[in-house]
Amino acid sequence: MTLDFILNGEDVVVKTDASGRLIDILRNHFKLLGAKAGCLSGVCGCCSVIFNGKVVPSCLIPAFRIRGSEIVTIEGFSKYDEYQDIREGFSQSGVVTCGYCDAGKILAVESLLRRNIRPAPEEILSAFMGIKCRCTEPESLIAGVLATSDIRQRRLYGRSA
Ligand code: FES
Ligand code: FES
Q: What's the pTM value of the predicted model, to 2 decimals?
């Protein structure tokens, strides 16, 4: 099947078989390796992308759903101000990421802050629940998200909560 869609702001066309998944198409056809193949069952989040404005696991998106969609991967997202907010918030709070968990952690924050700019600590921990990373303490994750929230609010409205 031939699929045309928007990928990181560009019109693209790809030929693939109907049984393919978005994660395979990104990695194999476009060499976008930021979305990692982890659990492949929608739990770990390390294959996250923004699909039509929503953060979703790319391992759960079948090829036929891609036609006409707009997709932003972690590579594309890294050019946005929102990405810089998260990077700065993480760095202020000692949250580490690596090639494996980058897309999952960063897009988990983005998804959460799009729903609620000032999430409660329990909400923050639940947003990271599927991500298997022992490199950052839960307290730092909470601090990292709240720092990001402050940075974003200052950037957008000139003040934080
Ligand atoms: S690889 Fe997609 S959620 Fe784990
Ligand atoms: S920093 Fe990536 S798995 Fe812990």
A: 0.93
